[in-house]
Write a structure and sequence with these properties.
Blueprint lengths: L2 E6 L6 H16 L7 E6 L13 E7 L5 H19 L6 E7 L6 E2 L2 E2 H8 L1
Parallel strand pairs: 1-2, 3-4
Antiparallel strand pairs: 1-3, 5-6
Helix pairs in contact: 1-2
Enzyme class: isomerase
Pfam families: MIF
EC number: 5.3.2.1, 5.3.3.12
């Protein structure tokens, strides 16, 4: 159930193609099947980072597990490179926020992942 949410005032040319590409990269680096990954991109009217309105971003990663320094560092690098390539956002123009969510706090298929996992094992 990993979720990648990106917010930027700079939008990709082809948003669906961009989020699909990010989905594959995200799945690879978060270490979970792409069939469980959710990627969103939100264009905001205004984003100021470090007192400047130059292109920037905010990215939030939520996952049940698979949140650790090594993985977060590699994922930050990979997603930042995609944002640089597609949106022209300079390195150092945004933040990532990583959240390791408890399984009981994420719902899917009319239940929580905690209950789903307990039924499948």
């Amino acid at each position: 159930m990993p979720i990648l949410e990106i917010v930027s005032a700079t939008a990709p040319k082809e948003i669906n193609a961009f989020t699909k590409r990010l989905s594959a990269v995200f799945a690879e680096y978060i270490g979970k099947p792409e069939s469980y990954c959710l990627v969103t991109f939100t264009k905001t009217d205004s984003l100021t980072f470090a007192g400047s309105d130059e292109p920037g971003f905010y990215a939030k990663v939520t996952s049940i597990g698979h949140i650790d320094n090594e993985r977060n560092s590699k994922l930050t690098k990979a997603i930042t490179e995609e944002l640089q390539k597609e949106l022209g956002i300079a390195d150092g123009r945004g933040y990532f926020y990583f959240m390791d969510a408890p399984a009981e706090n994420i719902g899917f298929r009319k239940d929580t992942f905690a209950n789903i996992a307990s039924k499948n094992f």
